[in-house]
Amino acid sequence: MALLQISEPGQSPDPHQRRIAVGIDLGTTHSLVAAVRHGQPECLPDAQGGVILPSVVHYLGSGRRQIGAAALAQAAEDPGNTIASVKRLMGRRLADVQEAAKLPYTLEDGPGMVGVLTREGHKSPVEVSAEILATLRQRAEDSFDDLLYGAVITVPAYFDDAQRQATKDAAELAGLKVLRLINEPTAAAIAYGLDHASEGLYAVYDLGGGTFDVSLLRLARGVFEVVATGGDAQLGGDDFDQALGDWALARQGRETRSAADRQRLRAAARVAKEALSAAEAVELRAELDDGVLTQRVERAEFEACTKSLVDRTLSVVRRVLRDAAVAADEVQGVVMVGGSTRMPVVRARVSQLFGREVLTDLNPDEVVALGAAVQANALAGNAPDGELLLLDVIPLSLGLETMGGLVERIVERNATFPVAK
Ligand code: ADP
Ligand code: MG
């Protein structure tokens, strides 16, 4: 039987033309854009060759703004107009933002949701996120020297309708066609090809810069269902930096004298922490108001002063398993996501809890964007035959009316689609 290529009105008249579709991880601290090129998903670099865009927007006044690393560099100088962690505000009212007091900029309720009062007036989280998305869209269009067909954007599994709608609105404002929003843990599982693996339960452990999320997914007939989620919105790599900085200070019997001092110590601790993921010992060096601080740190010392933080993530994991009435050994794969899962102790202890090696082959800060890119490529119709991702089920059966007013059911309810009969 011949297959007919049907093209819909408004779509590309040439069915063989490849549509450029990207996956975007719109993160709390970092955002990335990825696309499938030469059959493989890869993160797209900026002009300097880096793939990570800090999720920070700096409003300079008279319509000028900085986005990404340039904005981050201004955070200490102009905190009131430099907006980081805007994802925490998406689709929320002021009363819902528990961390409001900790944020260095001023919040005020706006139409429908909280916003930030900047020197350029009220900025909604949708507008701020749109700046980040537009930067990534521009990066993608420069990479391909072409316009984008659309994007798949990832959101945390626990995002409610208002938060998802705000994310869609931000994309629209950035001139992006949203092919679909998908859950971050689902994207990570897709990046590992688990949608082609055996049916059953998978866990995704995501420890980022400021947040921790764990999700339990069930794969059935190619569809991932989120069975349970848990996390701690105030626990992440930043807390490890803080703990290590405090430890070094105590070791030297010294104190910090200003907010800028504490900021420099945290930055130095972060550098030391990241180096300790590869080295057994490093030197922590911070220039403080009362002179330079240098402290040798062994990995075992770092692990001891941050043990309670790792413990906290593991108790969240145990609670999620308990709530879902699942035993740790029923989970047949554990995906590690987030830059903080580079810490060897985190990998070891999560492996120990589940009684199996965790999956770490892919870059943990890229894995969500990579999975979104695979999904975007399939939704744009670029995937080769037989490689369609089956991610949705049809809620009602479909049939044909035959002679005598009878309906022959052809596609059963809950079948995954696309489907051919
Ligand atoms: P988010 O999802 O919150 O946007 P990421 O997944 O990019 O954030 O994680 C950022 C965190 O990962 C930071 O706290 C950073 O210090 C940490 N990180 C990055 N590389 C390493 C490393 N080599 N060792 C330990 N932590 C790391
Ligand atoms: Mg993340």
Write the layout of secondary structure elements.
Blueprint: E1 21-26, E2 30-37, E3 40-43, E4 53-54, E5 56-61, E6 64-67, H1 69-73, E7 82-84, E8 106-109, E9 114-118, E10 121-123, H2 125-144, E11 150-155, H3 161-173, E12 178-183, H4 184-191, E13 200-207, E14 212-220, E15 223-232, H5 237-252, H6 259-276, E16 281-288, E17 291-298, H7 299-305, H8 307-323, E18 331-337, H9 344-354, H10 367-379, E19 392-393, E20 398-402, E21 406-411, E22 416-417
Parallel strand pairs: 1-11, 11-12, 13-18
Antiparallel strand pairs: 1-2, 2-3, 2-4, 5-6, 5-7, 8-9, 9-10, 13-14, 14-15, 16-17, 19-22, 20-21
Helix pairs in contact: 2-3, 4-10, 5-6
Bound molecules: adenosine-5'-diphosphate (ADP) and magnesium ion.
Word description of this protein:
The protein is of the alpha+beta class and 421 residues long. Helix content is 30%, strand content 29%. It is built from ten helices and 22 strands. Strands 1, 2, 3, 4, 11 and 12 form a six-stranded mixed beta sheet that branches. Strands 15-14-13-18 form a four-stranded mixed beta sheet, sandwiched between helices. A hairpin with a 4-residue loop joins strand 13 and strand 14 (212-220). Helix 2 crosses helix 3 (161-173). The chain is globular. The model is unreliable at 1-7 (pLDDT under 50). The site of magnesium ion has 4 residues, from loops.
